[in-house]
Amino acid sequence: MARSSPRIVQSVLKSVKSPRLGGRCPLTAFIGLRFDTPLLSIKHEIDGEVEVLPTDEVKARRMMKMEEILASLDQMNNDVLY
Questions:
Q1: Contact 16, 2 (CB under 8 A)
Q2: With 50 labelled, which of 26, 37, 58, 78 sits at a CA distance of 20 to 30 A?
Q3: Running DSSP on this structure, what letter comes out for residue 24?
Q4: What is the CA radius of gyration of the chain?
Q5: How far apart are CA 1 and CA 58, in angstroms?
Q6: Long-range pairs for 44-52 at CB < 8 Å and ≥24 separation?
Q7: What are the distances in angstroms from CA 79 to CA 28, 32, 71, 74?
Q8: What is the pTM for the complete model shown?
Q9: Within a 10 A sphere around the Cβ of 21, how many other Cβ atoms?
Q10: Residues 6+ apart with CB under 8 A from 24
């Protein structure tokens, strides 16, 4: 496992956006490839229970939460204005 660690680190570093590259990651800047996170899943713990979620589901949950927040802000603004 120790041998694979440098490859994982190198993969992550290649996917990190850099201000010196115009806010793009090295793979996008030099090769033109769109690069997503090398992670396939995220381990998440709530109230002592561990859940492993695919990154696609994490993105979907994040978008749903943002939509809830925006709806709440709209409602709050309407309550203040009217």
A1: no
A2: 37
A3: B
A4: 19
A5: 27
A6: none
A7: 45, 47, 12, 9
A8: 0.44
A9: 13
A10: 17, 18
